[in-house]
Amino acid sequence: MYRSQSQPCLQGLSLIFLVPLFFNFHTSYGDVGTAALYSPPYLPTACYGSDASQFPSSKFFAAAGHGIWDEGAACGRQYSVRCISDSTPDACNQNQTIQITIVDHIGQEASVPSAYNTTVFLSATAFRTIANSSTTSSPYINIEFQQ
Length: 147
Known about the structure:
Elements: H1 7-23, E1 31-38, E2 61-64, H2 66-69, E3 78-85, E4 97-105, E5 120-123, H3 124-130, E6 140-146
Parallel strand pairs: 1-5, 2-4
Antiparallel strand pairs: 1-6, 2-5, 3-4, 3-6
């Protein structure tokens, strides 16, 4: 039976092209959601009332939207959060991932029209760290988050 000598060479070439392609894809390890700005006054909160010591010194905290509130079990949870997109180019501060702590809840009763579908409401410091507020065209950004 005749065997082609070029077959091993072709397999090697295909590996050379496929391996770099594999490493160009971003792997997501978290969930995708939306974040909005959580404006002061921050006290009292649904989690800890008027206790000001609940806020981390980094000022990276958030109010949970209905989707992650979990009937109050979200209080004190920490999430890694990064901005992944907005309708405006360069709205996200690239390579900025922050650790936030949930201290409050904003649910259906919120006055913001689409607050019910928002995942987290970030403190002003947290929001400005991951989103370039001067280029953000909407009050919401798309985020990747992981507990």
